[in-house]
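Problem: given the chain below (243 residues), write out its structure.
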Amino acid sequence: MSRNRFAVIAAIGTLATILASAALAQTPERIEDTLGAPPPEGAAVLFEGANTDAWCKQGTDDPIEWKLVEEGAMEVFGGSATTREHFEDCQLHLEFWEPLMPNATGQARGNSGVYLQGSYEVQVLDSYDLAEIGMGDCGSIYGVSIARVNACQPPEQWQTYDITFRAPRFDPNGNLAEQARMTVYQNGILIQDNVEIPGPTTAAMDRDVTQPGPLMLQDHGCPVRYRNVWLVPVTLNAKLAAE
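Solution.
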């Protein structure tokens, strides 16, 4: 898929619309799958397959120990990874791969998580073919919102998350004025639609939530893999909206 074509897809329900209208535009139930989508102009490329310089081990400035593996991926190892750069409103693309763990069940089966601002988790788990999914299954905003549908692929296949995140707003005294909000597409399927998140989810970083925060990928003891991680920050619109 061409970069221009992906830019058109990503423009659906853009953060500019969110910030202008305080609500996401209506979005289709499905978009074209974005597997392998290149970063558009202006994106912060966080992992392109060759190095992990954009990341540090959670709570330190140390490089992460994650393993570089085939298919331009990095495999979870030795602690959660956080970006050195911090972000506010953004559009995030990443691809993840679930290991085959036939003897594991529930939260032990390919567990990881994608934390926007280190605080708001979209669960990563092998939930393939579950007839009923719950608050802790793949695609859930952990403890807040169950995915609308089970959009999971089988383990050992690459999957996509495309996430639009609007950071929480705080008044001058640091009081919460507007909750964080998130829209999530998994494998091109809408699974979370402008969901409000009242506060940090389980296992969030210990941080000042009134400030910009990093992207965090969780180490939960499972060899989950990530690749093609990039993020489009929308800092200019965020400043205009606050005026």
